[in-house]
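Bug #77: duplicate submission created two jobs. Keeping one. Sequence:
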Amino acid sequence: MHKKLIIFIIGLCCTILFIVLTENRIFNRYATLVKINYIFYDTNLALFHRKERSDAIVIIDIDDRSLQLEGHWPWPRTKIAAMIKKLLDQEVAVITFDILFPEKERNIAQTLLSHAESNRGISQAIKTYLAQQMVHFDSDRKLAEIIGKGDIVLGEFFSSSLPSSTGQLGKFLDNAPPNLTILHASNYIGNIDVLTQAARHSGFTTTLPDQDGIIRRSPLLIEHSGKLYPSLSLTTLQTYLMSNHVSLDLHEREEKKIFLGIALDNGMYIPTDLAGNIMINYRGPAFSFPYLAATDLLSNKFSRKLLEGKIVIIGSSAIGIGDLHSTPLEAVTYPGTEIHANIIASILDNKMIASPIWMTGVERIMLAVIGITITLLAAFLPALTFILLSLICIIIIAMLHALLLIKSGLIFPHPVIPYMQIFFLAVINSGCGYLFETRNRKKLHNIYGQYVSSTYIDKMLHSQDKHTLEGNTKSMTVFFTDVQGFTSISEKLDAKDVKRFLNTLFTPLTEIIFSHKGTIDKYVGDLIMAFWNDPIEDPDHATHCVEAALKMQTKVAELAPVFAMQDLHGIAIRTGINTGPMHVGDMGSQYRKAYTVLGDAVNLASRLEGVNKLYGTKILVSAATKDACQNIVFRFIDRIYVKGKDRATEIYEPLSLASEIAPVLQRELDQYQAALDLYEHRNWQSAKEKLSTLVTAYPQTELYKIYLARATKYCLEPPPLDYDFTQHLTTK
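Kept job's structure:
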């Protein structure tokens, strides 16, 4: 199957998996995943929360200093009543207690009366007097009386972990609809009867931390015994806004009623999660709201402007009695009273955080877009570009989260999933790419390993070109090299020694071919066939081929001492080279194929290898090869017709790199060119003299002897003017 299709299918499957994971019933099964999601939620809130102060709320704090100055807790109910009276005198709007009064305060007159009744020595008159004084020492009733004079909200606490219920609950909102998805509580802690009956309003203080102990959301309603009770925040808000009715915005799903939100009769709407919990928009770290110490309130050390018309929440941050929690912005030390303040302030300012039910649909669409986009990028882009674009995608998603939270107060229900999706898709696609690349690398090594150097196979893998064994025609350079006099050499050696000889010779020659970007076609006995410009694209293929041939001659000379140890002397190789159009590819039968080249240009190179014997040369190249080499010095050899060809070709002998030519060789070539010019202009006698000088100076060069013999012959029998000096070769 095609690589891109496989990557696309894998990416699509992963995308579907992450979309399925957005289903809460599935997502919540994985505790680690939930914790990571919390981290991303907290990070968003910490980075992008609104750092604002609320002017509508003041917190009266029973702090450590207040306890030092006013006495240990619990304070007398008369002192609590004094606090309420001072607040009412300042015309505060609402007084909310984040403190419970579940036990009656001792009445000293009643205590004395009980003692007197158990003592027969005390007169009835004293007992009657004590009974008459009980009403004057009833602090609970005095507190109840002042509670009844204003908009006071008392707190109560729900929990199913309580062994039993104590105290009395305040008013409930309504009967709970059947099959409602909401927090249920079997037990509670209420206030004493006299206070509950005197108070106009009440609300529960219960807050539920998530699995990691951090409070991110808070219930606005709790169901107890089939009735719905409001939270302290909701009741305070209703009282402040003079809202008398709350309606539930519910939605039917799978035979369950889930919350979408809660609406007040003044038109205010509070979005909630499916169980009626509000996501808390923390304004900042602890003490982000105005605080007034309780002792300063009792001592009148405050400004009237601070309290007038405000919502006042009474709570404690003192060590031992304070209600401290962990929040996304602060660990362990966040006052519980301020949690209620954050909820009230965010609703009043209409700056709530919400993750509506439709956000799940948006999240799934986003995951589908991300998955398809990344999968397509992975299929068509290089690995580095793909990784960079994946990082850009992560940045875009982070910016989207920030923008939604800052501008609209919206947050995705599973903010971690898009990041996980990009990460996993990147890992999986990179892994697939690595496997395909490894497979392709292995395939190319298997195909080309016997032909070209592994270094160049790696370059082929990194290139954008497609390398196949399918045939194609292109301009290439090919050479044939064999060992001079191999037949006589093999007669001196047994089969084992012949093998060792060829291995000793062919190994360094093959290394030279590979190092010059050549491709080994085949070894046939003592012959090496190689070609250039496929599969490695090489615009200088002719030059590299000739350079390799020159290096091979040098290497054979260096190996002479090694061969001498086998009693082999005068080992030499002859090479024929040609450049031209050739057909290259995998050729053969269905039983066996070979990666090779075919064409007239190939045949000419093969003929030139044999022509070396006629001219006493080691390397012969065609004019096409010579013309393609700009930095190599050549010596013209002849113009010939090889056997089986009707077209003449000029042949040359490469001697040296132009940058390395020796002065002695350059003088020899100048002399040869002068003799050749005389020869071509039919100045036979002068040419003969020049050639005689060359033969005397360079007796080892067979070419000069050949031209001297021709010039001598033409001196005696001059050829006609239309004579064709091209040599017709009759052997291969």
